[in-house]
From TrEMBL:
Keyword Repeat among record annotations: yes
Alphabetized InterPro entries for the sequence: NACHT_NTPase, NPHP3-like_N, P-loop_NTPase, WD40/YVTN_repeat-like_dom_sf, WD40_PAC1, WD40_repeat_CS, WD40_repeat_dom_sf, WD40_rpt
Taxonomic source organism: Pisolithus tinctorius Marx 270
The keyword Cell membrane belongs to this UniProt entry's keyword annotation: no
WD repeat feature ranges: 854-886, 897-929, 940-981
Biased segments, Basic residues type: 1-10
Protein name from the UniProt record: NACHT domain-containing protein
Length: 1147
C-alpha cells in the first residue's frame, strides 16, 4: 500500500506540469549536530554556479545554426530566455535543503517505507531536479562539435527516461543520487565550456549514464533474472551501483582535469536469458570504424545529420537519404554517425552493402541483421525480439524483407516504447551496391510504405546511396524522406576538408609541402575518393619511384599510375550500368562523345536541343535513355536544369584511352555534328532585337530585367552556339555543306544579330576570335573567297566598334553600322537592308588605322604595351595609375592599379602575361599581378631619380630599368631584389631599355644621343653608336564643351544643314520629367569616350575615334575650307523607343 503511494507521488513529481522549478515543499530539516550527507556536500559545492551559467549563456547565446546547404534552421529560445531559465533553476536548487540521514535510511530500508513517504519524495526531487534543469538548458546550446551534440542528446534522453521511469526501490537510491550529482556538475559553467574540447570523455559519460538509465528503468526485470539465476539480489545491485559510481567518478575527474586516461567501462546488460541463435545474419555488414571521417572534416553535414538524428520533435522526418556521386564520401559520413551513436550508448544498428559481396545476397537479410544489431545493444528490445521469433520460428530464417521489417523491427519496437534512451538510429549504407534493381525493390517498397511514414517518433533511418534512377524515383517524392545531396555541398567546404585530409595523410613526408597539398586538392575536383587514392599512391609504399615522381604522376594525371587512380571504379560502374549490346554501346558513345566535345557543360535539355539538329537521324534520340543511368559518374542527371559534367577530370582521359576503357572507348570527337548543330541553331534562332529592348538610350547594364529577358529569349543551346560555333568549325575538316551554312549566318544580316546576342550575353569579347577561326578554316578553299572577304571585314568591324557592341546591343545597328566604311563588302551587303540610320557625309571609305580609343586615364598616358597574346593592353599615366584594357572590346579590365606616388612613365607585360612591371616618378620599380590587379612583393628600390623605362627579360625572371639618374638596374623578379649594383656609364637619362631575345644583352637609349648594348650578365658597356630617332607625335584633340546654360539654344545637329537635325529630340526626356523636372536643363554632350549622351547619361550615338578630330560639332560656327568636316544627317535616325524601326525584315 505504502509502495503504491510512493510511486504516485514520484509520478506527480516527475510530471512536467506539476514539477516546475520551485523548491519542494515540506523538505525535512537536518537535526542539530547531525553530519551533512554526501548529497548536501555535492549541492554546496555547486552553489552559485547557476549565476555563472546565466552569464555564460548571455555571452555565448545560441546562434541560429545553418545546415550544409546554407539555410537557417530553428534553434530554440533566445539567450535572454535561456539565462532567465538558468537563474530560476539556480534559485530552485539553492532553496533545496539537504536530505537528512533519516530520509536516506527510509529509502534504504524497505521496512521503513510506510513511515518515510515525505522524506523519500524530497529525496527523489533532490536527485531528479538537476536532470530536469539539464533538459531545459542543454537543448539551447548550439554550434558545438557534432560528436558532442550526439553525447548531449543521449544525456538529455537518459535524463528523461530516469525521470519518467525511475523505480523507487530503495536499493537503487544511491545510483539516483550519483546520477543527479553528475548532471548537476555538468551544468556548471566551467564544465559546459569543455563540451567541445572534452567531447570524447563526454561521450563516455553519456554511454555510462545511458546504461545506468536503462538499469534503473529495467530494475524489476533485472531482479527477476538474478533471482532465476539464484544470485543474491542485494549484493548484485550494490556491486552494479558501485561499478557505475566508480566509473562515473573517474570520468568526471578526467573531465575536470581535461585529461585523457583509459577508463574501463562495464556495460551491465543482462542478455543471457534469451536465445537468438540460428537467426539470419549478414556477416561483415556492420560498422567499420576505419571508414570514419577524419576529425575536423565534414563538420557541417555531420551537424545537420546529428541534429536530425537526435531531434525529439515528433514531426521530424523519419528517414534521411544522403546521396551523391561515387567517391563523395557518403560511406565515411554514414560510418561516422553510426560510430558516434554507438560510442555514446545510443541504440542503433549499421548495415552496409558492398559490390564485392553481392553473391551473398545481403539484401535478403537486411532487417534481420538490423534487428540482431539492436538486440545486442538493448536488453528490452532483445527480449521482445526473442519473444517474436519464439512464437514463429520461421522468422529467424525468412528472406521476406517485408516480414523482417514488420515482425523483427516494428513489432519489438512497439513493445519497448518508452524504455529506450534517445532515438533509435539505423544506418543503411551504399544501397546502390546491393546489386541489380530487383535486389532492392522490396527494400525501397518498405522504406516508402505507409508504415515507414508512421514510424515511432524516436526512430530514424540514415540511408546512403548514389542517385540511381530507381532509388531516385522511390525516395525523391516521399514526404517522410529528407533528401540531402553531397553534390550540393559548396566546393569551398569540400576543398577545406580534403585539404585537412591530405595534410594529415602526407604531412610526415618531407617532400610534400603546402604547394603539393594545394595541387592535390585542386586535382581532386572535390572528390574524396580520388584524394584518398592519390595519397595512397604518393606514399612510399612500393619501390621504383621517389615520392616526387609519384606526386608528379598524380599532379599531371599521366596515363597509368597516378593518372588512372579511378579506373577500376569507372570500369565497375560502367559494367553495372551499360549493357554490352551494339545499340546501347553506340548510343553511349554518341552521348558521351557529345558531352566530351562541348567546350562548356550543358544541361540535358540543351544537349537534347543540340541533338535534334544533328545531321544523322540515328543520333536524334533523347539523351536520357543513356544519362539516366550515368548519375554515379556524371553530375546534373537528377535535375535536368543542372549542368552535366564528369565526376572527375580523369573520366575524360579514361574514355579517350582504348587501353583503359576497352569497349567504352570514345574515339575522335565528333566535331562535325556539333558544328552542324551550332550553325543550324544560329540560322533558326537568331533574330533582330531578340530580347525586345524598348529603348536605345540604355546601356546593357542599365536594363534592369536583362537577365530575365535573356532567360526567356535566348535558349541555352543558342547561347552556346553563339559562343562556340566557330571553335567547333575550326576543329572540323573543311566541308562545303558546313561552309554553306556558315555563309547563311556570316554573309547576311544574321551576323549583326549574332553580335547583338553576344552583346546581351556579355560575350562579345570572343567575337573576333570566332571570325579569325573561321577565316583560318576557309583559307585556300575554292568557291568561298567572297565569304572569306566578309569574315575579314567582320573582324575589322569588331575591332573598330568593339566598345560600342559590348556597351549597348541596339547600337550595333544605330552607331556601328552607319559608320562602316562605304567601300567594304560588309557595308555594301548590310546597309541597304536597314533604314532610319544616321547619314554620314564625308565619312571614311576604307577601314581606318585608328581602331580603338581607350578612355579612362585622367592625365596624359606615358607608356603602353601589349600582352603576349595580343588580347590585353597595359598603360601607365601621369594620373599615377596603371590600367589594363581589353584589346578587342576597348574597355578597361578591372580597376586601376594604384600605389604609385607620381606619374607612371613605363609599363610592360611579362612573357607569360601574368605580371606587369611599371617604372614611375617616385624612383620605384613595381611588379603587379595582371590577373588580380595587386602589387606583388615590395617595391624594387635603388635608383636615385625617376624610373623612365622598364622591361621583362624573355624568360620572365628578370626586369631591367632605366632611370633619370643615368643608371640601369637589373632585378630578380622572384626574390624581389636587385641583381648586383646599378650600371653606370650613360651621359644622360635612360629613356628606353630592352632585353635581347637570348636574355644575354640589354639595349638602352639615353638623352646623350646614344644607343648602348650591355652584357646582361657581366654588366659591361659594349659599344656606343647610333643617333636617336624621333617620330612625329599626334597633337592632343580638343573637344569643345559649351556651358550648360546655352545648350538648349541649339538643336541637336551635327551638320551645316539645319534640316539634318535629330527629329523628335524630346524623346530624350521620356519618362524623366515626372521624376526630375530639372533634366530639361541637362545638356546633350559629346563625351571623351566617343558617346553623345543626353540627360541622365542616355545614349544617343557613338562616334568612331577616326572621326573625332574632323567631326562637325553642334557648336561649330564656320567651316574653312567647306566640306572638310564629317557631317551627320540625323533627320531619319530611329532612336529611343523607336530604334527598332531601323530594321524591317523581308517577309
Amino acid at each position: 500500500m505504502a509502495r503504491e503511494r510512493l510511486k504516485k507521488l514520484l509520478c506527480r513529481s516527475a510530471n512536467p506540469s506539476n514539477s516546475g522549478l520551485s523548491a519542494p515543499q515540506g523538505s525535512s530539516q537536518t537535526p542539530a549536530g547531525d553530519p551533512t550527507s554526501d548529497a548536501q556536500t555535492a549541492g554546496n559545492a555547486s552553489r552559485g554556479s547557476f549565476a555563472r551559467m546565466k552569464n555564460f549563456f548571455h555571452q555565448s547565446g545560441r546562434v541560429p545554426a545553418k545546415d550544409v546547404q546554407g539555410s537557417t534552421a530553428e534553434t530554440g529560445p533566445d539567450p535572454v530566455s535561456v539565462g532567465t531559465k538558468v537563474e530560476a533553476s539556480g534559485v530552485a536548487l539553492d532553496a533545496m535543503t539537504p536530505v537528512p540521514r533519516i530520509g536516506q535510511r527510509a529509502v534504504r530500508g524497505v521496512a521503513m517505507v510506510d513511515t518515510a513517504v515525505t522524506d523519500i519524495q524530497t529525496l527523489c526531487d533532490t536527485y531528479l531536479q538537476p536532470l530536469k534543469i539539464f533538459n531545459s538548458v542543454v537543448t539551447n546550446i548550439a554550434n558545438i562539435h557534432p560528436y558532442a551534440q550526439v553525447a548531449l542528446g543521449i544525456l538529455t534522453a537518459a535524463s528523461k527516461l530516469i525521470i519518467t521511469q525511475a523505480n523507487l526501490d530503495n536499493a537503487i537510491s544511491g545510483l539516483l543520487e550519483k546520477l543527479g550529482s553528475v548532471y548537476k556538475l555538468l551544468l556548471e559553467e566551467d564544465m559546459m565550456k569543455k563540451f567541445d574540447d572534452m567531447r570524447d570523455t563526454l561521450a563516455k559519460i553519456a554511454r555510462v549514464v545511458s546504461d545506468a538509465a536503462q538499469f534503473v528503468a529495467n530494475y524489476t526485470e533485472t531482479k527477476s533474472f538474478w533471482k532465476r539465476l539464484g544470485k543474491h539480489i542485494v549484493s548484485e545491485t550494490q556491486s552494479t551501483i558501485d561499478d557505475y559510481t566508480k566509473t562515473l567518478d573517474d570520468l568526471m575527474q578526467q573531465y575536470r582535469d581535461c585529461a585523457v586516461r583509459d577508463v574501463r567501462i562495464n556495460m551491465h546488460r543482462m542478455l543471457e536469458d534469451v536465445n537468438l541463435e540460428g537467426m539470419a545474419y549478414a556477416a561483415g555488414a556492420g560498422l567499420d570504424t576505419t571508414k570514419k571521417c577524419l576529425d575536423g572534416t565534414r563538420t557541417e553535414i555531420l551537424q545537420e545529420i546529428t541534429r536530425w538524428a537526435t531531434d525529439l520533435d515528433v514531426n521530424a522526418p523519419r528517414i534521411l537519404w544522403l546521396h551523391g556521386q561515387a567517391g563523395r564520401g557518403k560511406s565515411a559520413i554514414a560510418h561516422t554517425v553510426a560510430s558516434w551513436i554507438k560510442d555514446v550508448g545510443g541504440l542503433g544498428s549499421c548495415f552496409c552493402f558492398a559490390r564485392d559481396r553481392q553473391a551473398e545476397h545481403r539484401e535478403q537479410k537486411i532487417f534481420a541483421t538490423v534487428a540482431r544489431g539492436l538486440a545486442d545493444r538493448d536488453p528490452a528490445f532483445r527480449r521482445a525480439l526473442a519473444d517474436a521469433v519464439s512464437r514463429d520460428y520461421d522468422l529467424k530464417t525468412t528472406s521476406d524483407v517485408t516480414q523482417q521489417w514488420q515482425q523483427l523491427v516494428l513489432g519489438p519496437l512497439s513493445k519497448v516504447h518508452g524504455l529506450i534512451v534517445g532515438n533509435v538510429v539505423v544506418v543503411i549504407d551504399a544501397l546502390d551496391e546491393s546489386g541489380p534493381e530487383i535486389s532492392r525493390r522490396h527494400i525501397l517498397s518498405v522504406l516508402t510504405s505507409t508504415e515507414a511514414a508512421h514510424l515511432p517518433a524516436n526512430f530514424r533511418i540514415l540511408l546512403t546511396s548514389r542517385p540511381l534512377p530507381d532509388i531516385e524515383r522511390a525516395l525523391g517524392a516521399c514526404q517522410h524522406v529528407k533528401a540531402t545531396s553531397l553534390d550540393n555541398v559548396s566546393a569551398e567546404l569540400t576543398k577545406r576538408d580534403i585539404r585537412l585530409y591530405v595534410s594529415k595523410q602526407l604531412g610526415d613526408l618531407r617532400e610534400i609541402g603546402d604547394t603539393e597539398v594545394r595541387t592535390i586538392v585542386q586535382k581532386s575536383d572535390c572528390l574524396f575518393e580520388w584524394a584518398r587514392l592519390a595519397c595512397e599512391f604518393v606514399k612510399p609504399n612500393r619501390p621504383g619511384r621517389t615520392v616526387m615522381e609519384r606526386f608528379d604522376e598524380v599532379a599531371f594525371l599521366r596515363s597509368g599510375g597516378g593518372g588512372a587512380l579511378l579506373d577500376a571504379m569507372y570500369k565497375t560502374i560502367l559494367d553495372d550500368t551499360i549493357p554490352n549490346d551494339d545499340t546501347t554501346l553506340a548510343r553511349f558513345r554518341s552521348v558521351m562523345g557529345q558531352i566530351m566535345s562541348t567546350f562548356e557543360p550543358l544541361h540535358m535539355d540543351a544537349l537534347n536541343k543540340m541533338r535534334t539538329q544533328f545531321p544523322h537521324e540515328e543520333d536524334r534520340f533523347d539523351v536520357i535513355v543513356i544519362l539516366e543511368f550515368m548519375s554515379p559518374l556524371l553530375g546534373g542527371i537528377a535535375d535536368r536544369t543542372c549542368l552535366v559534367r564528369p565526376l572527375h577530370a580523369s573520366f575524360h582521359d579514361f574514355l579517350s584511352d582504348p587501353a583503359r576503357s576497352g569497349i567504352y572507348f570514345i574515339g575522335a570527337s565528333d566535331m562535325y555534328s556539333l558544328s552542324f548543330a551550332s550553325l543550324q541553331s544560329l540560322c533558326g534562332g537568331l533574330r533582330f532585337n531578340i530580347c525586345g529592348l524598348e529603348s536605345s538610350y540604355l546601356s546593357n547594364s542599365d536594363v534592369l530585367d536583362l537577365s530575365e529577358r535573356i532567360d526567356q529569349s535566348i535558349s541555352t543551346h543558342l547561347s552556346y552556339s553563339c559562343r562556340f560555333w566557330a571553335q567547333h568549325l575550326h576543329k572540323t575538316a573543311f566541308d562545303a555543306t558546313l561552309a554553306t551554312w556558315a555563309k547563311a549566318v556570316i554573309g547576311s544580316e544574321k551576323i549583326l544579330f549574332w553580335l547583338e546576342t553576344l552583346s546581351l550575353l556579355g560575350a562579345s569579347g570572343g567575337a573576333a576570335d570566332s571570325l579569325r577561326n573561321t577565316a583560318a578554316w576557309l583559307l585556300g578553299q575554292d568557291g568561298f573567297e567572297d565569304l572569306l572577304e566578309v569574315v575579314q571585314d567582320g573582324i575589322k568591324f569588331i575591332r573598330n566598334f568593339g566598345s560600342v557592341i559590348s556597351c549597348s546591343a541596339p547600337h550595333v545597328y544605330i552607331s556601328a553600322l552607319p559608320f562602316t566604311p562605304s567601300n567594304t563588302v560588309l557595308s555594301r551587303q548590310l546597309v541597304p537592308k536597314f533604314s532610319c540610320l544616321v547619314g554620314v557625309s564625308g565619312g571614311v571609305k576604307e577601314w581606318p588605322a585608328v581602331q580603338l580609343a581607350l578612355v579612362g586615364h585622367t592625365s596624359r598616358v606615358n607608356g603602353v604595351g601589349f600582352s603576349p597574346d595580343g588580347k590585353r593592353i597595359v598603360s601607365g599615366s601621369s594620373d599615377k595609375t596603371v590600367r589594363i584594357w581589353d584589346a578587342e572590346r576597348g574597355v578597361q579590365i578591372g580597376g586601376s592599379l594604384q600605389g604609385c606616388d607620381g606619374p607612371v612613365w613605363s609599363v610592360g607585360f611579362s612573357p607569360d602575361g601574368k605580371r606587369i612591371v611599371s617604372g614611375s616618378w617616385d624612383i620605384i620599380v613595381r611588379i603587379w599581378d595582371a590577373e588580380r590587379g595587386v602589387q606583388i612583393g615590395g617595391p624594387l628600390q635603388g635608383h636615385d631619380d625617376q624610373v623612365l623605362s622598364v622591361g621583362f627579360s624573355p624568360d620572365g625572371k628578370r626586369v631591367v630599368s632605366g632611370s633619370q639618374d643615368k643608371t640601369v638596374g637589373i632585378w630578380d623578379v622572384e626574390q624581389g631584389m636587385q641583381i648586383g649594383s646599378l650600371i653606370h656609364g650613360c651621359c644622360g637619362s635612360v629613356f628606353s631599355v630592352v632585353f635581347s631575345p637570348d636574355n644575354k644583352k640589354i639595349a638602352l637609349g639615353s638623352d646623350d644621343s646614344a644607343v648602348r648594348v650591355l652584357d646582361a650578365e657581366g654588366f659591361v658597356g659594349m659599344f656606343n653608336t647610333c643617333k636617336n630617332l624621333t617620330l612625329p607625335v599626334c597633337n592632343p584633340r580638343n573637344i569643345p564643351v559649351p556651358p550648360a546654360d546655352v545648350i538648349q539654344a541649339y538643336p541637336i545637329c551635327f551638320s551645316s544643314v539645319s534640316s539634318n537635325a535629330l527629329p523628335d529630340a524630346q524623346q530624350l526626356l521620356d519618362g524623366l520629367l515626372l521624376e526630375d523636372p530639372s533634366v530639361v536643363d541637362e545638356p546633350v554632350r559629346f563625351h571623351p569616350d566617343g558617346w553623345i549622351r543626353g540627360p541622365k547619361g542616355r545614349l544617343l550615338l557613338w562616334i568612331p575615334p577616326a572621326l573625332w578630330r574632323s567631326f562637325y560639332s553642334m557648336w561649330t560656327k564656320t567651316v574653312i575650307p567647306k566640306g572638310c568636316c564629317i557631317e551627320l544627317d540625323l533627320s531619319q535616325m530611329a532612336h529611343g523607343n523607336k530604334w527598332h524601326q531601323c530594321f524591317k525584315p523581308v517577309l
